[in-house]
Automatic annotation (TrEMBL):
Organism: Caenimonas terrae
The protein's annotated pathway: Metabolic intermediate biosynthesis; chorismate biosynthesis; chorismate from D-erythrose 4-phosphate and phosphoenolpyruvate: step 1/7
DAHP synthetase I/KDSA domain residues: 42-337
Keywords: Amino-acid biosynthesis, Aromatic amino acid biosynthesis, Transferase
Record field: transmembrane: none
GO terms of molecular function: 3-deoxy-7-phosphoheptulonate synthase activity
PANTHER family cross-referenced by the UniProt entry: PHOSPHO-2-DEHYDRO-3-DEOXYHEPTONATE ALDOLASE DAHP SYNTHETASE, PHOSPHO-2-DEHYDRO-3-DEOXYHEPTONATE ALDOLASE, TYROSINE-INHIBITED
Function per UniProt: Stereospecific condensation of phosphoenolpyruvate (PEP) and D-erythrose-4-phosphate (E4P) giving rise to 3-deoxy-D-arabino-heptulosonate-7-phosphate (DAHP).
Name assigned to this protein: Phospho-2-dehydro-3-deoxyheptonate aldolase
């Protein structure tokens, strides 16, 4: 009898719908597609310095509860209208979470928060939420972590991110060259920006690599490169990098590399020392830099939800506080309103 040499560690196989089937089940209307296209163009103009508004990407660390995410989106949309003269507000709608060891991996991977791993339903939940954001006219952003799942929803994103743990990955860099939305590369977890700058260069070039088609067929794609890749400062093991000196140093590194000296700054993660309470302090420092005339800061990222802080998943969805993060701690809604107002006022002061 021949020895078994394949699938030795496969415990289960589940069938997923093809990307095309999910698109047909949950279609994007012409109006929704028009909103996504227009909001991407707005993001590009800010990144290129053609629009002096500030890009602000705000929302939960990760979406675990579609209902509270929809409520948050409605509130953020009202803020977006209020401050549209100074800010372009985009909702952070993150579905996949890179884990250092293990933990809940995000709505796509475990929508029931119970380890059943119904990825098909997770993809449906993700697409429904992005369609709702487009329906109400709110741009959406997400981190691109998996190499296959973007086929199911990425056409609905106005901005994307490659995280600190995958910024050095050749596979993510070449995938980034194919994505249609502007894309931010975060500095590494150690805090260095050179790896992210290399990634920006690589993502801007043409690549040829295996992928899957909308029909689920294995194919080889040839890309044109993503001209709108840029740097995101998120701090790291070496400390925060949101202060004026760090921003100037990063902008100078971009210029030396032949890239526009424009970047985004994350108020969370290493810049807040992983303490959500510090995010408003980081944002206040960035607002002062903008008001003083900084043109290097094109945008700001905030981890924000309806209820401040975080909570643990103990028994699935049972007992969870509505609108509170189950991953990193977030600032609450009242603080979000205050921080966004402060950033808007900083843009107005810079103009004056």
């Amino acid at each position: 009898m021949a020895a078994r040499i394949s699938d030795l560690h496969i415990a289960r196989e589940d069938t997923l719908p093809t990307p095309q089937a999910l698109h047909e089940e949950l279609p994007c209307s012409d109006e929704q597609a028009g909103h996504v296209a227009a909001s991407r163009d707005a993001v590009r103009r800010i990144l290129r310095g053609e629009d002096d508004r500030l890009l602000v990407i705000a929302g939960p660390c990760s979406v675990h509860e579609p209902a509270s995410a929809v409520e948050y989106a409605g509130r953020l949309r009202e803020l977006a209208v209020r401050h549209e003269d100074a800010l372009l507000l985009v909702m952070r709608v993150y579905f996949e979470k890179p884990r250092t060891r293990m933990g809940w991996k995000g709505l796509i991977y475990d929508p029931g928060l119970d380890d059943t791993g119904d990825i098909g339903e997770g993809l449906r939940a993700a697409r429904r939420l992005l369609l709702e954001c487009a329906r109400i006219g709110l741009p959406a952003a997400s981190e691109i972590l998996d190499l296959i799942t973007p086929q199911y929803y990425a056409e609905l994103l106005s901005w994307g991110a490659i995280g600190a743990r995958t910024v050095e990955s050749p596979l993510h860099r070449q995938m980034a060259s194919a994505l249609s939305a502007p894309l931010g590369f975060k500095n590494t977890t150690g805090g260095g920006v050179e790896v992210a700058i290399d990634a920006i260069h690589v993502a801007g070039q043409s690549h040829r690599f295996p992928s899957i088609s909308m029909q689920g067929q294995a194919i080889v794609v040839t890309t044109t490169g993503n001209a709108d890749a840029h740097l995101v400062l998120r701090g790291g093991a070496g400390g925060p990098n949101y202060d004026a000196a760090s921003v100037a140093k990063a902008a100078a590194a971009l210029e030396r590399a032949g890239l526009p000296p424009r970047l985004l700054v994350d108020c969370s993660h290493g810049n807040s020392a992983k303490d959500w309470r510090r995010q408003p302090l980081v944002a206040a420092d960035l607002a002062r830099q903008v008001a003083a005339g900084s043109r290097s800061i094109a945008g700001v990222l905030l981890e924000s939800h309806l209820v401040e802080g975080r909570q643990d998943i103990v028994d699935g969805r049972k007992g969870l506080v509505y609108g509170q993060s189950v991953t990193d701690g977030c600032i609450g809604w009242d603080s979000t309103v205050s921080v966004i107002g402060e950033l808007a006022d900083a843009v107005r002061r810079r103009r004056a």
